[in-house]
Amino acid sequence: MNKLLLVGIAIIGFLSAAAILAPFISPYEPSLIDSASLLMPPSYAHPLGTDGLGRDLLSRIIYGARISLGIGIIAVGISLCIGVIAGSVAGYFGGLADSIIMRSADIMLCFPTFFLILATVAVLEPSIINIMVIIGLTSWMGIARLIRSEILSLREREFIQAAKAIGASHYGIICRHLLPNALGPVFVNATLGIAGAILLESALSFLGLGVQPPVPSWGNILIESKATLGVAWWITLFPGLAIFVTILGFNFIAEGLRKHWGYNA
Amino acid sequence: MFLSFVEKTKLPVFVVVFLFFAGSEGIAEDRGDAFVVGSISDARTLLPIIASDSASQDVCSMIFNGLVKYDKNLDLVGDLAQSWEVKEGGLVLVFHLRRNVSWQDGRPFTAKDVEFTYRQLINPSVRTPYSGDFERIKTLEALDDYTIRVTYKELFAPALSSWGMFIIPKHILEKQDLNSSTFQRKPVGTGPYVFKKWKSQNYIELLSSNTYFEKVPFISRYITRVIPDESTMFLELETEGLDAAGISALQYKRQTDTDFFKKKYYKFRLPSFSYLYLGYNLERGLFKDRRVREALNYAVNKQELIDMVLLGYGSIANGPFVPQSWAYDAQFPPAAFNQAKARSLLNDAGWKDDNFDGILEKDAVSFEFSILTNQGNEERIKAAQIIQKRLKEVGVRVKIKVVEWSVFLTEIINKRDFDAVLLGWSLSRDPDNFDIWHSSKIKPGEFNFIGYRNKEVDELLVQARKTFDQEKRKNCYFKINKLIYRDQPCMFLYVADNLFVVHKRFRNIEPGPSGIWHNFIYWWVPNVEQKYRSKSAIVP
Questions:
Q1: B385 → closest Cβ in A126, A213, A226
Q2: What gap in Å lies between CA A66 and CA B136, rounded to an integer?
Q3: Share of chain B above pLDDT 70, in %
Q4: What is the topology classification, in CATH, of domain A3-26+56-261?
Q5: What tens digit of pLDDT does each residue of B77-124 get?
Q6: Looking at the complex, does the CB of residue B401 fall below 8 Å from at least one CB of chain A?
Q7: What does the domain layout of chain A look like in residue ranges?
Q8: ipTM for the assembly
């Protein structure tokens, strides 16, 4: 195993543990409003300071990790499901199925994703579930293309012909022989996708279309910090840093996996 | 009055913090320079009878005049009208217009323009929010080119002040459809400044008028820059890119006490004519019981809101009038913060925590509702979270939804698709608030969207409009205040102070109860301090 992968796994593992154990390790309740400690700089009582409503920033960032990581992982889970099914059907059967699936992927790719998401969220309500689903539904195309191209090249190999010769079903061939050999680059791609989804959620929340207050997500902590930028640097710095480190972690993992498996994608 | 997006308009001065006046006696006032003011939103239209938002009205007020205006002390004085007579006990107003006024394109201003403006205001196909006051008029005749006689159907106390409405030119607009006229982006008025250029979402540039009837303003250019973000606005102040702008409580308290700011800017803290409230949708069963609404009022600590959201720069609202208004009842006490009372009132109304989950239930339904507010207003979002916390303490679960402003108006307010809204009212100087509280004003697009109905209040509102004696009229409003506060159709929260700064190179600023803008055309900058000398180098 290479160093990049290790560092990446360490970062993400640490953050995931913090997110899972949030109720036990966060020093305060994340939406506890305290009029006695508005905008306090980092101190012993509040290691990362407090925000404009006197809420403890560390607790909010820890709870924010749940939202941000959760959205990243679930959104990518959704896009992975759709992408893998669509890509393998298109790649394996070819012909009309291929045309329909890949052309619809092309159509989806024509829309600028961010604006598609903005419009959808504006029409529906901004909520955690909606955001996960919308991000998932608008980011499966890359995965579908990857899977399809892998499968296109794999299905001509001898071992697939052998499988066909002994009468294996289509389903069996795709699931047992093709997918396991095609998934490597997909995992690399999906890891990057998680990072992308976290950034997307932060951007949406920053625009006020993401997770609604008082639930903390890194993006909406950041937007709240905008009004206090000149007075309270800590509210901007720490959630920004959290996003930065997380994205870095996922990128390390993706890069590490690629090197580990020797892909050049 | 209008729905306010953010309560930052030009409003009366009451308290002035460290203000320094350069003595101007004996020094000749210099002409030239420009005044650059920051606005959080762009104007929508510069046709004043259609403009309902404060950004548009602010610019219009530099280009147009009404027949009357408020002076420094909030007294009505003539503007386009030289004088006026009140006849037949108030039923008839006769205005004598100034004779030396011309439109900025050179044509003379006459009574025909006033008549034309009136016809447009009552024309149902013109989308104006100001028709209400003018529908009370029975006849309006131009007796000659400089005399107007207005006869009202019945006594109407806000009549005179309603003629502060800006007058528009007949010779330009006569044959146009006002709703789609190009005049909306290229106005011609009678005022001190002439429209020059409007770059959408960027700036509006006005030049001083050489033909203004009162006097040619000293400041040559008046520029409104659109900066849609509070922090960016503040950065612009720090680089002196703006000469005046509204600032947030936090900026006022923590970021403007630097040497730079003290040297460069006057800081103003003014009481405003707007208040924040939590309006309930009274059509929904949840809020039908008055005890419930009272309980919610007891459960929220208004002083805490002021301390945390406004950092103390505001006062508790005790009803639908603001302290600056003469109709305000200073003796009327708002309900004290008392959560025990809130709980017992909720119990009386049948709300009990039967399943011990911390949330009250009645007939197996939990007490839950959502508070909607608009995006881009940090103060409201903060206030919503504090209210949420306080209501949770008495067993009411609140969800907060933040919605984009235009969606908010068209989908939420006009369709009345809400439980409760956190919003502000910006009030006019005349206390008549018939449009907000009268039960006839509940149609879509009208202002009583919470659906408040009270016969007694209806009658008093009508009576107040007919009463000219200010003391008697005041009594009506005191009674209205009591009745509305007792009914709690909405939770009255606070009246925030209006905080802003103006650059110190401007001389002759004279704060008064009506604000600082009343003598803007007399402001000037000494030659040596003038900043914008070349004609172009102001706006990016």
A1: A213
A2: 60
A3: 93
A4: MetI-like fold (1.10.3720)
A5: 999 999 999 998 889 999 999 998 999 999 999 999 999 999 999 998
A6: yes
A7: 3-26+56-261
A8: 0.74
